Amino acid sequence: KQFTSIIHGKFAHEETIATASFAKTYLVVKDIKDATWVCDYILNGGATKAEFMKKFKNAHSDGFDPVKDLDAIGIANQTTMLKGETEAIGKLFERTMMEKHGVQNLKKHYFVTDTICGATQERQDAIYKLIDKKPDIMMIVGGFNSSNTSHLQEISEDANIPSYWVDTADKIDTDNNKILWRTSHGELRETENWLPQENLTVGITSGASTPDKVIEDVLEAIFQSRAKARVRCTI
Prior knowledge:
By secondary structure, the chain is of the alpha/beta class. The chain is about 40% helix and about 20% strand. The chain has eight helices and eleven strands.
């Protein structure tokens, strides 16, 4: 039976393109909102084929037909996407196919495969454990074009911990206690007095491909900024 690959990712990202190259028929969903829309289409129709194709323009294989190509699906993902969201999307499609075709027929219409990068998964698991310790500040170190690093920042932001994503130590002004950092949505911000004067715990993590030297330089910049006060860093 021919399965259509539902790929959790960004359709223009090189890793999504690589994953899609292994699939004959595929559809890329960016997030749980996209997935919910597709599942509603599978169960209830509602949207026309033209509306479906417009919504997912450039995010499907050539010749994709939502009327016939969503009868049997498999879940894959861009290797650097959030593991938790991929799992939620998989469960959503699983429930949808059970409701559509019956529990007894699920294996004929649904399967899931784990394509999350091992290093990415390790870092996502580790940051969840780190934020459970409730550090005062989180430092996220990695390239601003790194998808897996942006997800680490997103996890930390969602935990309501002050979180600063920098790509190099140069973003930390050690003389004036200022930092230029990036949000998970790509906005560059400058924060003054980002390191408070009292003692604090700083958690630090990095993207999967961040060189150790870059992390070391960021740590050194933090210590320089707090030369007259004690800083405890959790790595």
